[in-house]
Amino acid sequence: MTASSTLADRPAQASGHLRTLRAVVVLHVVALLVQAVTAGMLLSSPGGRALHATGGMALAVIAVVHLVAAILVRWPGGGPGGFIVLAALLLAFTVVAAILGMTHVKVVHLPLGVLLFGAGVLQLTRVLPRRTP
Q1: Considering the domain boundaries, does residue 43 fall inside one?
Q2: Membrane-spanning regions, if any (predicted)?
Q3: Contact 90, 113 (CB under 8 A)
Q4: What is the pTM of this model?
Q5: Are the CB atoms for 85 and 93 separated by under 8 Å?
């Protein structure tokens, strides 16, 4: 592998990682929305608690994948690094929200869930390609 072929592969590699990040962010936002739905089910049905807890674990895994995808956009591909900070914050706040939920501190858990959804949508608007008329 020569230096010229390595440089030629960089844009394609960055593009592939960016597509992966976009897919993961969409999945992350959908999982956050499902958490809101299962939170409502938690209040109205007996199986809601188990669904919400399972969704929370899945959300934590997705947040880790989101962070890894954001890092891969930056370092091997040389893409923008701005996605990493918000991905790391989403992961950290997901862990905090999970702990607060398990300890039944709903007064902070609920607003933090809304904040997580808003941050997920913000990240989604940042990673999606801009369309110009």
Answers
A1: yes
A2: 21-43, 55-75, 82-102, 108-128
A3: no
A4: 0.84
A5: no
Q: Does the pLDDT value for residue 98 go beyond 50?
A: yes
Contact (CB, 8 A) for 60 and 94: yes
Domain that holds residue 59: 11-126
Tokens encoding 46 = 């007996």
Domain count for the chain, please give it: 1
Domain assignment present for residue 6? The answer is: no
35-44, pLDDT tens digit by residue?
999 999 988 8
Residue 2 lies in a domain: no
Q: What angle do CA 60, 99, 38 make, to 5 degrees?
A: 60
Write down the residue that tokens 């939170």 correspond to. 39
- Apex CA 68: angle with CA 110 and CA 71, to 5°? 115
The predicted-structure confidence for 13-65, as pLDDT tens digits, reads as follows 557 888 999 999 999 999 999 999 999 998 888 888 899 999 999 999 999 99
